[in-house]
Amino acid sequence: MTPSLPTFWKNVITVLGGALGAQALPLLAAPLITRMCTPADMGAFSLWLAVVAVAAVGATLRMETAMILDHEAEQQRTCFGVVRYTATITAVLVTSLAVLAHLLDVPAVRQLSWPALLTVGVGTWLTANMQTLIAYATSHNAFGKAARAKIWGAGTIAAAQLLLLACGADALGLLAGQLIGVATGLLVARRLLDPPRAPLALTLGPDARAYLHRHRKFWQYTLPSNLLNSLVGQLPLILIGMRHGALAAGLFALTQRVLAAPISLLAASVLEVFKRQSVQEYQAVGHCKQAYRYTFKVLLLLGLLPSLTLLLFSPQLFAWVFGPAWREAGELAQILAPLYFLNFIASPLSYVFFVTGRQNVDMWWQITLFVMTLGVFVMPGSLHDNVLWYALGYSTLYLVYLHMSWQCSQNRLAAA
After folding, report:
1. How far is residue 412's CA from residue 415's CA, in Å, rounded to a whole number?
2. pTM higher than 0.70 for the full model?
3. Fewer CB within 10 A of the terminal residue: the chain, N end or C end?
4. What is the pLDDT of residues 381-403, one digit of tens each?
């Protein structure tokens, strides 16, 4: 049953309110945090967080997505049990691999301390279970409760990190604050949502195996695609940490966080509207070019002024807001501003590939992006050189992406 327009917008506003609160709190705390830690501390923490973000995608097998399809309590209980089992296995495996890689002096983990290596599995487990609880909330339209849990988690992360940094902790304080905050958000979500309880078992039972088989498309197809997408998002930070060290990774991490905020908030709200309009138009007339053209204009107008401001004044703004030590992050933001402007426009419009059934186009574009990112960051050169080539390559791919999505909206792009 299609929800009424007021209900639809009420849910969208509630979700966005939670996202706004969850992202605004860390951003508001950032000017204080950056004055209490060094870019190298931020870089070491961000590398740890990048590993956790990628590992958490694999830890769920994307089975939490099936939660939205199965509303029966027993089916959802089984799903919780499956995710808890796979998240536990993944946590142990990731921790063991991280320790082994450190002992073998693998460059990718050279910047991580022993506390970071030993807690990467804990962070993965907490994040995976939090994602599953949010999916459970979505399946029951409990958007308000999910939003409150996100805000609790984000607020606790910011408060714990500030407190620990004030007590003299460095990168370890950022890491511990993150774990405390995610654990708090998880506990609050469980208390508010009261999900079905699934015991942790040493092996998967018949019901769990049947559930995995019934929803095998999620871990056969959705999981590889989501893993690639997550890896592409974190790959620049990881490669910068390997090539240029924790200090450079810290500068890039702050740049990434600031530039990504408008995409996560404003573009996400436009996407929700575009989803509805594009599907309705496509079903009615066989294309969605009117919805595409209108959405493109809205995104262009929303993104133009912030992008121009960053392009012209980023070094001064970063030094003023975050402290003089972070001026170089503003220089990176200046290089990346045109790329994130294109990202702001292209990300919501990419939904047209799903509307028209051309998901394969998006997959091949993601693979090309992965290869390009890997190539530019292993090239010799300074941090600024690598970021510049990354921005040029990524921007070129986005222009191609926008052209293909426009063709799709007119139903002119040939299906595979």
Report:
1. 9
2. yes
3. N
4. 899 999 999 999 999 999 999 99
